[in-house]
């Protein structure tokens, strides 16, 4: 008997064929809401459907102390990831904070060397600033220097800013990623997380163009830096469920 599911665009499709195999699978973009500081907001955001929340341990209006971060992670439901965001911190500091705050993943958002992930006790996401059409060359060089590629579970793409590491609300040219995929140049990369300038009004288009595994938003769902607007969060998560069916190396 055939089974049924919802696509991102809401169209019901048969997914089990007569031989018992599957023609497709339900696609749901993962969502990370970054820059949280308040436990109550974190819980509400998890209840709204976020897959992960980000805690910033770098200089930022969204900075949290380890004590604040632990208060947030203590209220998170099961299967919601707590991602610690660090900028140019050493391995000892990262591991100490990760243990103290019960983090589940580490995001390296600075100029870290490719040797660092091997020293981190948790899986890593490495963020890269996309400056121009040659963006992929730098990522390839960095990944080539990683001792164990299993330590880097995802690559996060953010907009380049000469004075800030993320959270600027700026956007890069998504077509650069689409072009690289068309040319077959994304083969072998870890899953992509798209960040930079995302809001509820543009995220569906961004997903259609880039085809990421996940999206990451901070300023696009805020009332003020570090204070999320829960209505904007809900609208953003809802918007990630819209759009065309995804077809690329991450979505079979």
- Percent of residues in helices: 25-40%
CA gyration radius, whole angstroms: 18 Å
* Order of strands across the main sheet: 3-4-5-6-7-8-9-10
- First and last CA, distance: 22 Å
Q: Element order, helices and strands?
A: EEEHEHEHEEHEHEHEEEH
CATH C-level class is Alpha Beta
Question: What is the β-strand count?
Answer: 12
Task: Examine the secondary-structure arrangement and name the CATH architecture.
Answer: Alpha-Beta Barrel
Shape, please? globular
Domains (count):
1
Structural class: alpha/beta
Mean pLDDT: 87
The low-confidence runs, each spanning 5 or more residues with pLDDT under 50, are 1-25
The proportion of strand residues reads 15-25%
Number of H/I helices: 7
CATH superfamily: Aldolase class I
Would you mind describing this structure in some detail?
- It is built from 7 helices and 12 strands.
- By secondary structure, the chain is α/β, with parallel strands linked by helices.
- It has a single domain, classed as TIM Barrel.
- The protein has an 8-stranded parallel beta barrel.
- The N terminus is likely disordered.
Concise structural overview:
It contains seven helices and twelve strands. It is α/β, with parallel strands linked by helices and 252 residues long.
Keywords:
alpha/beta, eight-stranded parallel beta barrel, 25% helix, 252 residues, TIM Barrel, globular, 12 strands, single chain, 21% strand, 7 helices
Secondary structure layout plus pairing:
Blueprint: E1 4-6, E2 12-14, E3 30-34, H1 39-47, E4 52-56, H2 66-73, E5 81-86, H3 91-101, E6 105-108, E7 124-130, H4 135-144, E8 152-159, H5 175-182, E9 192-194, H6 203-210, E10 214-217, E11 222-224, E12 227-228, H7 230-239
Parallel strand pairs: 3-4, 3-10, 4-5, 5-6, 6-7, 7-8, 8-9, 9-10
Antiparallel strand pairs: 1-2, 11-12
């Amino acid at each position: 008997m055939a089974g049924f599911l919802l696509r991102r665009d809401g169209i019901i499709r048969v997914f089990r064929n007569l031989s018992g195999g599957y023609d497709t699978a339900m696609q749901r973009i993962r969502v990370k809401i970054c820059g949280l500081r308040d436990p109550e907001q974190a819980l509400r955001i998890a209840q709204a459907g976020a897959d992960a929340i980000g805690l910033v341990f770098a200089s930022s209006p969204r900075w949290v102390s380890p004590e604040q971060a632990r208060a947030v992670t203590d209220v998170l439901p099961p299967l919601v990831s707590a991602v610690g965001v660090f900028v140019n911190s050493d391995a000892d500091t990262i591991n100490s904070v990760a243990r103290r705050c019960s983090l589940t993943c580490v995001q390296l958002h600075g100029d870290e060397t490719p040797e660092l992930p091997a020293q981190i006790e948790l899986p890593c996401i490495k963020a890269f600033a996309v400056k121009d059409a040659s963006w992929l060359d730098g990522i390839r060089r960095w990944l080539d220097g990683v001792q164990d590629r299993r330590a880097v579970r995802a690559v996060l793409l953010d907009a380049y800013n000469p004075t800030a590491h993320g959270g600027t609300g700026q956007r890069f040219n998504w077509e650069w990623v689409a072009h690289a995929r068309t040319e077959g140049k994304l083969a072998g990369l870890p899953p992509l997380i798209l960040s930079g300038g995302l809001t509820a009004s543009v995220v569906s288009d961004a997903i259609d163009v880039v085809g990421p595994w996940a999206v990451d938003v901070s300023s696009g769902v805020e009332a003020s830096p570090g204070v999320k607007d829960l209505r904007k969060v809900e609208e953003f998560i809802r918007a990630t469920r819209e759009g065309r069916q995804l077809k690329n190396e991450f979505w079979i």
